[in-house]
Amino acid sequence: MDLSKTDLNLLVTFDMLVSECSVSRTAQRLGVTQPAVSHSLKRLRELLGDDVLTRGPGGLQPTLRARSLLPAVKAVLADVHSILSTTAMFDPAVTRRSFRVSMSDAMSVEVLPSVMRRIRREAPGIDIVVSTSGPKESYQRIADDEIDLAVGVFPHVPKDLLSRELYRDTLICVADKRNKRLKNGRLDLKAYLASPHVTVARNGDTGIQLDEILDSMGIERRIVVAVPHYLSVPSLIRGTDLVGHTRRRLLSVLRLSSDLVAFPEPLPMNVPQLEFIQIWHKRYDGDPGHRWLRDLVLDAVNPGRSRRAAVANVLPIEHFSVHQEAGAG
Q1: pLDDT in tens, 80-116
Q2: Which residues contact 104 (CB under 8 A, 6 or more apart)?
Q3: pTM attached to this predicted model
Q4: Nearest to residue 114, comparing CAs of 280, 287, 249?
Q5: Which CATH entry fits the domain spanning 93-329: 3.30.390.50, 2.60.120.560, 3.90.550.10, 3.40.190.290?
Q6: CA pair distance 105, 293, nearest whole angstrom
Q7: Domain boundaries, the chain
């Protein structure tokens, strides 16, 4: 194949067509007419010797060969973007760009408001598209160039991805302060195990699977409700005899009622810390805009880097009641 006679823009159209399965949506995203996309599809079919898209019961569907080629085409386009963006100038004050970020519901409450305040002040042309996905899905979405950055707990980062630690957090118990099993504002192990529990579901997204730790120790507890994230735990506990756990940092972000009390997990071992990181593909490591975004996220969670942002986004510790032994957590 003579590349000098091949329009490499066809790769962009191929990516859009196979991803969207629609000529009209592809035209809209590329900012061209539908006849122009139809003409490009015809050229792609001639070039590849494949239909690329075929009509089925649900509309256009990619062929087996088109689906098999899509990851490689996305990788090529991402590498081209990386080459061009590494040498490009990036001025956040005037640049127009959209970043795709994956983070959990809790992280979007803890991190995103501070990030957006900075963006609106310093980079009004920058847009952020936020989605949620677990670790394995995030790894694949970064590899496929579907997201630019993922923020959260990722236990086993693949070798082709890069990462940076943001902070470490600990789990902490939460109960209603009128809970009759409380003694001096906390539960001992016997009262803890005798209580009905709220737990964060075993979905692989939380980093610390407390239920698996307890199972390995032969410790049983009664779980009456399982939820997908830590945000809903405090509101479920208020006014009940339920006991749950959440992340310590969230206590200072959420507006917790004074009816709740927080204390260390009363377990006969140290619960591992949660390590929060951001991960990205190495193809974007030298991209000045991507590097700016990574630094922005780090500023939002690290008071040492951005004391002003931390004070604006975090409530004082006096806002909630915490009973903790010396050296715990």
Answers
A1: 776 666 556 788 999 999 999 999 888 888 899 999 9
A2: 132, 152, 205, 229
A3: 0.68
A4: 249
A5: 3.40.190.290
A6: 19
A7: 3-87, 93-329
